[in-house]
Specification:
By secondary structure, this protein is an alpha/beta fold. The chain has helices spanning 55-68, 79-85, 87-100, 135-156, 164-167, 173-182; strands at residues 16-22, 31-37, 71-77, 108-112, 123-127. Helix 1 (55-68) crosses helix 4. The protein is globular and about 55 Å long.
Length: 203
Amino acid sequence: MKKNYLKTKLSDKRFEAGTDEAGRGALAGPVVAAAVILKPDFYHPELNDSKKLSAAKREELREIIIRHAVAWRVAFVSQYIIDKINILNASILAMHQAIKYLPVRPEFIIVDGNRFKPFGNIGYETVVNGDEKFQSIAAASILAKTFRDDFMKVIDKRFPQYLWRNNKGYATPAHKAAIRQYGVTRYHRKSFHPNVEQLKFDF
């Protein structure tokens, strides 16, 4: 078993929330964010960026995070809102919503990436590749990814021709081919491709 030595916290605050999103680069479906506050002594040797874990390992770690976190929340921002305010603003909105509904108010926030907007008067810091450096951001990445994947599997049953159960709404060749053949659904982000012909370009 590979051990990962992610840091517990960045600040000296008792309740530090890590936040991350999933689905930012997809052609269809919502962007989903999670916020997680972990106990100061929490440690799991396999906790890591969700993209580096198998689907089975993400599911296993999700249950551990939910069971042991001081607080956690997941928030969805729909494709309609993405089209209105753009994907960056929608990603930040999703993170804000997840933080807002945490049952424990954080005293500091650490954010995966390099873009964020102030959340009230709570201090924050962005961390590039934060899901590879801090446990709470890694935990948030796992929750965001798994809850979004679950959603995409549900809507796949309504539109199986797009293979969302496999591609989760991302721009795979099969997904783009299906859009050319069947057009777009209400779950597709129109701002990413206002017409089907645009899909000849790489996203």
